[in-house]
Amino acid sequence: MKKMLKSSLAMLLMMGSLISLSTTGIAEEQVIENQTISLEQIVEPSEEVIANIDKELIDQNDSVAVVTETDSKNALVNEAEDNSMVVKEYDTEPGRDLSECVEVKETLMKQDENGKWVPVKPGDTIGLYEKTKMEYDLNFSNCGEIKKGDKLTLKFPKELEHSKAEATFPIYDENGNQIGTAVIKPGSNEVEITFTEDVFGNDIKGELSFETRWDTENIEVGKEYPIIENGTGNITVGPPVIGEGQLLNKTGKEIEGNKLDWSVKINQQGLVIEDAVYTDTLGPNQKLASEIYAKYGYYDTNNEFVAVKDVDSSQIVLTEDGFIINLGNLPYVKDGIEAFVVEISYHTEMTDGGESGIYYNSGKLTGKNIETEEVEVHNDVIEGEGSIGGNVGTGILEILKHDSADKQKLLAGAEFDIINNAGKVVAHIVTQENGKGSVKNIPYGDYTVVETKAPDGYELDATPHKVTVAKDDKGLVTISIPNKKTDPTVPTDPTDPTDPTDPTEPTEPTEPTEPTEPTEPIQPTLPQTGEKAAVWLTAIGVLLVVSVAVIKFKKVN
């Protein structure tokens, strides 16, 4: 139900009695609870009495004139200085409690040796500081349509906690649109989900998970506690899981009052260390908020720390951004007991009120006979997440593409990606000859339209365009995106041809050389007695040489 008050109202609170006056003929006492109220415009000076409504009154300059919180006892709302104000935001009717219709399956999870989340089984042991996780499978099939303002409250075991501070995380639909918010208040052991959008469908299902750990103030190490995991069973609180074999170990976690609890463990290896010195440095947005507690000790057979002696406070020196502890020689020996280990604890305050979320601290251990050991750690971040399936309603997203200088000139061939809040491309649109392109059945929500291809002859529009598809627009939203023509390229002047170069003068041929006159052959002499064979052989050889020379000469010429 919505009640519209379009006429002027004037009301005065006097002597404990409520008297209503009107300058325009309407006199009505406004004490309204659990209803949707919209005050459109107040023309005359007035004082409104409205119950159970948080309102922000806006003046004619769209500035906040009054911020007020009313209650069932009729708190007074003051008028704006210029006697004109509009209620811009108003409460809605309270939503349904979905706890009676939703089917819930809850599971407590732990991490195995490979870091994978697995169900906790009855009889398991969970370390004192070990992370766990609550998982919920939700089935809303019996709830009908989920409306804006509907709520769901889920419980988890009282022996567990999510955080010492209030935690809030969003609930998304399967398209990445936020449709609700989950809130876990410290000490309540409840998570409350409030839907901020309508969700439609016949088979709506969802998942919710958030990290937990033992509430160390309400449990005991070694004791069994009941859990629910497909039935009822018991799990045991184990001793702290210590960084086995580490020389320097440091952890931090958030506690109440915007504070952090830091724990340091030194020399779990049990080494002999000469002149051990520990230096602790606080990270940004922190300051010391407690004394520094440091103790010598050892671990017993149950892996629990047994303190032997406090470190002398004179050996703890505060610095500008932390502190230094001179530990001396380890082990520290008292009454024949060797205390190899040192445990240190202290608190810091978040100076930014918790806005950073993650806070870093570092530690350094030095000694004469060891290599320097350094660690940098941050506080344990306990996280949560949730998603609800189903349909939040669908609409049509339409793009109109036109020339930037002529809106009547519609452009085809432009292409766009449609990106949801999760950064996923959920649709692709191409404009047609009428300049339009659209996608149907797109879930209600916020999207970004990015042009990936410009029409031929036009520049690409690189601007991301934000658009919301909503029921208020009757499911249709049109976005107009102009394109600018590309500047025509100016042709370059042709270069003048170069003059041809004059050919070089041919060289004069050289005169052939005169052939030389052949020499006269030598006249052979007659052979002497006994020289006949040699002479004939010589003659044959001469004839062969002459023949070869003649043949070669003929080939060349």
From TrEMBL:
Keywords: Cell wall, Membrane, Peptidoglycan-anchor, Secreted, Signal, Transmembrane, Transmembrane helix. The chain crosses the membrane at residues 533-551. Residues 480-526 are annotated as: Disordered. It is a peptidoglycan-anchor. SUPFAM superfamilies: Bacterial adhesins, Cna protein B-type domain. PROSITE patterns: GRAM_POS_ANCHORING (PS50847). Belongs to the serine-aspartate repeat-containing protein (SDr) family. This is LPXTG cell wall anchor domain-containing protein. It comes from Vagococcus coleopterorum.
